[in-house]
Amino acid sequence: MSVSFVVAARAAGYVAVQSAADPVYGLTSARFWATSVALLGLAGAVVGGLALARSARRTGDGGRRRAVVALVTGAIALAGGALNLTVADGGPGTGNGVVAGALALVLGLTGLILGRLALTRSRRTG
Q1: Which helix (H) or strand (E) holds 115?
Q2: Residue 18's pLDDT is what?
Q3: What was the pLDDT predicted at 76?
């Protein structure tokens, strides 16, 4: 092997490692998907909290519609966040939406729990 080939191979390896380690700052499609699902999970958690507060008052439909909305949005956010984390091939800062995907999991689960509590309470009081 010639010395120039070894030097070129080391330089190519350094460039490959360097470019893979650089963080991505733009909005990639994976980040957009994960952010959208996280916002949907946030909406589900908020609606679930409102449904739980509404079911405690025992007025109207007891927050059943809001509870169902919280269950549906929470399930979609949970599934979308899990899917995003499953297909991500890197960690935070790689442009794969890993942080927002994990946030979508947490918020989706929160929406599911609050929606289920509100639905159970509205059935019990109604």
Answers
A1: helix 98-125
A2: 45
A3: 92
* Residue linked to tokens 């008052």: 57
Would you give the DSSP letter of residue 24? P
This prediction's pTM: 0.72
Interval 74-91: pLDDT, tens: 999 999 999 888 888 877
Using alpha carbons only, give the angle 101, 104, 107 rounded to the nearest 5 degrees: 155
Q: What token pair was written down for 113?
A: 């729990």
28: helix, coil or strand?
coil
The whole-angstrom separation of Cα 123 and Cα 56 is: 11
Nearest to 122 by CA among 67, 70, 69: 67
Q: What sign does the CA torsion over 79, 83, 84, 86 have?
A: positive
